[in-house]
Write a structure and sequence with these properties.
Number of helices of chain A: 15
Radius of gyration of chain B: 16 Å
Shape of chain B: elongated
Low-confidence stretches of chain B: 1-9
Oligomer: heterodimer
Strand content of chain A: 5-15%
Mean pLDDT of chain A: 83
Largest sheet of chain A: 3 strands, mixed
Strand order of the largest sheet of chain A: 1-3-2
Number of domains of chain B: 1
Helix content of chain A: 55-70%
Distance between the termini of chain B: 24 Å
Number of strands of chain A: 3
Number of helices of chain B: 5
Chain lengths: 275, 119
């Protein structure tokens, strides 16, 4: 029995020693894991965006894309985030929806933009989707949904259009877990406050969407898949705290008006990718 | 059996142990020599089960939670692979020798088997 115990200790110590010695190596750097992961994510994002852009109408109006780009730029610059991490796309669709995709693609439907009353509400939506990207919720949820093997195959072009379609559908439904949504909301508040934008309009937007006359809106993708909009609004107001935020408008009145008109207008004036 | 299970079982560590356990059950009425070596294989698999399971669940937590990918994780996985390779080679060597009727006694698992497997 003593011999067994002694030999067990020898093996255990040996295992821990090998692990400890190997841990001193910088494997993550050595194997370029972060770079490779990012490259995989970018490839999947590109494929998914191609899938979506083939089936949806991408809004090409500069009166919309330029102000939206300006709002995104403010959120990035004030939070020390490289803007090149994101690719903002506006889709001409009356559905109330916005979602993030791998590779930093953020898709916002004009239906959602139409429901907003001011730039702070739009920035709240953008900050929320940015948070899903920054906190790696997109790849995590996609990996959990379709499996890491499928994702790896997708990056090498080894999956069919039907699987890509399913992945795009899953992301468009934004089916993140309650905890991930809460984490994204918390981060949204931080991003907004650092950008000099009050998170309260974002909370107001959520409250407005839960009103009786907006029942049809509540059944829309963006809100129905997000946990309890009323509770979220309450949380956002709480996290925003009592600190007074100096709200400096990002867009000029003219840009804001052009953006509103651009969302509703039917004629398109040439596509401009925001990034 | 253990070798076949090693291929199928690495992603799901419990399969390795199950395969060896089934093999042990199938041979429990065999001679003392056969039973002894089956028991030794079963015990070695049991130790690998703990190592592989830790790696498996650590990987799962990386995928599904906020757990970051660290040098410690990769070092652990490499250590686990080394252990699996050592066990794999030892199993082949033991299979060849026991087929010739030679007695093979592994470090730790040999003395432990003596305690558990009686003639």
């Amino acid at each position: 029995m003593r011999l067994v115990f002694k030999q067990f200790l020898v093996l255990l110590v040996g295992f821990i020693l090998i692990w400890a010695v190997l841990s001193t190596m910088e494997w993550v750097k050595l194997l370029r894991i972060k770079e490779n992961t990012q490259a995989t994510e970018d490839k999947i994002g590109k494929l998914l965006w191609e899938q979506i852009s083939n089936s949806e109408t991408v809004l090409e109006r500069r009166s919309v894309t330029e102000p939206m780009d300006e709002l995104l730029s403010r959120l990035c610059s004030r939070n020390g985030i490289e803007k090149s991490r994101f690719r903002l796309h506006i889709v001409d669709n009356s559905e109330i929806n916005a979602f993030a995709m791998p590779g930093g693609h953020i898709v916002v439907y004009t239906g959602l933009l139409e429901e907003t009353h001011n730039e702070a509400e739009i920035m709240g939506i953008l900050a929320h989707e940015m948070s899903h990207v920054l906190l790696r919720h997109v790849m995590k949820s996609l990996g959990a949904e379709v499996g890491m093997t499928v994702l790896a195959n997708a990056a090498s072009g080894g999956i069919g259009g039907e699987t890509l379609n399913q992945m795009a559908k899953f992301l468009a439904q934004g089916a993140y877990s309650r905890s991930l949504e809460e984490e994204a909301d918390r981060n949204t508040v931080q991003l907004l406050v650092s950008s000099g934008i009050s998170p309260l309009p974002m909370a107001d937007f959520l409250k407005r969407m839960t009103k009786e006359d907006k029942k049809d809106i509540l059944e829309s993708e963006w809100l129905s898949t997000h946990p309890d909009a009323q509770k979220r609004a309450k949380n956002i107001s709480q996290w925003a705290g009592a600190d007074t935020i100096t709200v400096a408008p990002v867009l000029s009145n003219r840009s804001w008006q052009k953006l509103r008109e651009g969302i509703r207008s039917d004629d398109q004036i040439g596509y401009q990718n925001l990034n | 059996m253990s070798l076949v299970a090693a291929f199928a079982g690495l992603p799901l560590p419990i399969l390795n142990l199950l395969a060896t356990f089934v093999f042990y059950i199938g041979n429990r009425r065999g001679t003392y020599f056969v039973r002894w070596h089956c028991m030794q294989a079963l015990l070695s698999q049991l130790s690998l089960l703990f190592i592989n399971s830790t790696g498996f669940w650590w990987t799962i937590s990386l995928i599904f939670t906020d757990e970051p990918l660290t040098d410690s994780y990769l070092a652990y996985m490499l250590t686990a692979v080394i252990c699996n390779i050592i066990e794999f080679i030892a199993t082949i060597q033991a299979a060849i020798k026991t087929r010739r009727g030679e007695h093979v006694e592994w470090f730790l698992f040999g003395p432990l088997t003596h305690l558990l497997c009686k003639p």
